Amino acid sequence: MSLQSLKSSIEEITKQKASALIEEATKEAERIVEEAKRKAEELREKAIKARKDELEAIEKSVLSIEELQWKKKILGKKAEILEKIFSEAERRIAQMAGESAYRSFLKNVAAEGIMRIPASEYLIIANKRDGEVLGGGLKEIEEEVQKAKRSQLTIEISDDHIDSLGGVLVSDKNMREYYNNTIEARISQSKMRLKGQFYRELFGGE
Amino acid sequence: MTFEIQELTRLVEEERSAEEKIKKAEQDALDIKDKARKKAQEIVRKAESGEFLENLEKKKMREIEGRKKSIQAEYKNKIQELDKKAERELDTFVSKVIEKVMGVET
Description:
The structure holds 2 protein chains of 2 kinds.
Chain A: H1 3-95, H2 100-116, E1 121-126, H3 128-136, H4 138-149, E2 154-161, E3 167-172, E4 178-182, H5 183-203
Parallel strand pairs in A: 1-2
Antiparallel strand pairs in A: 1-3, 3-4
Chain B: H1 5-49, H2 53-102
């Protein structure tokens, strides 16, 4: 073998060995990166699933709270509407004071109060305006109630006045028993009786 | 096989050069693997850091905001309907109350 061919042989072997080393390292590098990518994908999938579950829970909670707040507002609005009905009724009744229907109402609430209390002497207390109206028709009330009760009785209009929109407070002479038949009391009673019915009629099953 | 001293010297130099080339190739191989390991570490680090979740979260938050707005619109509409109904029915119900309050049982 000549020296030149020996040199060529050394060069060739060196080249092959070096390229084998690089080739092997490149393959190993690719394997390392691929393995990392696979691991990263696994981690990513796991993290995405966990975060998605968390976000779903957040969404559910946020939307439930939002809906609950609005449902509360709806309930508030319904209560406001019902309240408006009764306050408007109160306002309109107060405006009826001078009308004949109101005078008849006054006579009737006084009579009703008397009928509810077992006594023979009664005291009627009202606001100044209604007290004067009742004073004018006292005889009529007395006769009507005596007829209904089938007994003798006396009715007095108190000089004291109550701070009320209208109606009367009836008591026995000794003020042991009384019956509150003022507009406020009657509205409050109506409210208790009618609220549920109005709610159903106005809002149904909403 | 007979060689001159000079030729032998060149051959030895050639051998030395070959050894250096191999050493360099070995070093290059180590560098390639080292670079790959660093790249792999970075890939895993990114996956562990959860940076990629940001977009997912932003998207979901936008979705939630959208749904919230739709709930708000739905209920605002319901409130408007209630107001309209109340306005329509107010007189009827007020009359019922007045009837009840003014009506007396004797």
